[in-house]
């Protein structure tokens, strides 16, 4: 018998699944080339789900359902709320682009996006190895199909094949690591795995062997070096609308999955996985920033930027435990700074790709940095939004990217460990190097002569959402306290359960 708590834990997922199926059926009768009915139904569904998740998160309650396979807590509900809003914004930006490229011949863009979001939800709320893996596969399979949505585009199909092959290898790594830990602990339940490891009765070598494969699988999903090889090719090859779908909200799900596995389940092995995360963070910051400097393609540059930004998230995740000691204040500071960082990164990414999608027109992709030349003369508003995003990613005050970096660096320095302080110094140096390629984009927009006199136009909904998106990057930088407190409270409630 299924109790009410079990149903309560997955109401949003059930609603999302039902509506994805309903929208797919309704779309069969839609003949409009812009799929207006499908689009509106999708946005309404996402709006209801976002509100529902926000209500759940505001309540702050934690409960488990379906035999402890899923958990509903403040951290998960807020991340699901933000992921839903991110997908809403993405679809608003993507619709004109997709319509111009005949990607709306059917409603696949909308239904596959909903199924990908459902996979993210399962990843975020999974409290069992099988649930986490199920959510991951649902999200990635939908993502593979989205990348190949332009079936007549050779570059997109090639990117989808690379994504599929490398994604399958990474999923194999993760599944193999989970199976090793299951074999050692005798359980797939994350809570029971934690208790079994904490008992000290399991051979450490077996656990570390499985841990290596788990961390490798997580690193691939986050795009961390040396498991980053798919990211630049997929970002560049996928249709820009799909690039934003796979580069935005999924980062929130990857962060949540990392917390569920490494913190909720494998915290007694923190000394081991912290060393692995440190290596991944150093490689991501170094390779991401240096490789981005030589890029002329904007999407490829943003891919390497993502790699470097994930390096900062990893720094926040590794600074929560000091010498095997779990201090509640240190844990809260570290993991909340990482959560704040990934949320603000997604916010900035949405606005960045929103401008790129806005500048693209039928037969022209606007993928090269040189395509932004003289944008300020053509549209001061959109050039301003792009400049705000570039300054934020570079970590220049008073934008939200500066405070996000500062929060992570503070968590490293507050540990008092020489290694962590050295990592903070290294991160600052890499950020200074990274500022070059961000400021180059600003220079091109404001100081280069425009290559075309074509005016920039966009539908009202796109202009409104993009303006609000850009303003939030500035406002949250000036007043970061509210979101930071929300992240801290969510982390405390999630770990206390």
TrEMBL record:
Organism: Comamonas endophytica
Any one GO molecular function term: NADH dehydrogenase (quinone) (non-electrogenic) activity
Keywords of the record: Cell membrane, Membrane, NAD, Oxidoreductase, Quinone, Translocase, Transmembrane, Transmembrane helix, Transport, Ubiquinone
Transmembrane regions: 6-26, 38-57, 77-94, 106-124, 130-149, 161-182, 202-220, 241-263, 275-294, 301-318, 338-360, 381-404, 419-439
Quaternary structure and interacting proteins, as annotated: NDH-1 is composed of 14 different subunits. Subunits NuoA, H, J, K, L, M, N constitute the membrane sector of the complex.
Name of protein: NADH-quinone oxidoreductase subunit N
Reactions catalysed: a quinone + NADH + 5 H(+)(in) = a quinol + NAD(+) + 4 H(+)(out)
Gene that encodes it: nuoN
Keyword Aminoacyl-tRNA synthetase: no
Membrane topology qualifier: Multi-pass membrane protein
Location of the NADH:quinone oxidoreductase/Mrp antiporter transmembrane domain: 127-430
Job description of the protein: NDH-1 shuttles electrons from NADH, via FMN and iron-sulfur (Fe-S) centers, to quinones in the respiratory chain. The immediate electron acceptor for the enzyme in this species is believed to be ubiquinone. Couples the redox reaction to proton translocation (for every two electrons transferred, four hydrogen ions are translocated across the cytoplasmic membrane), and thus conserves the redox energy in a proton gradient.
EC numbers, comma separated: 7.1.1.-
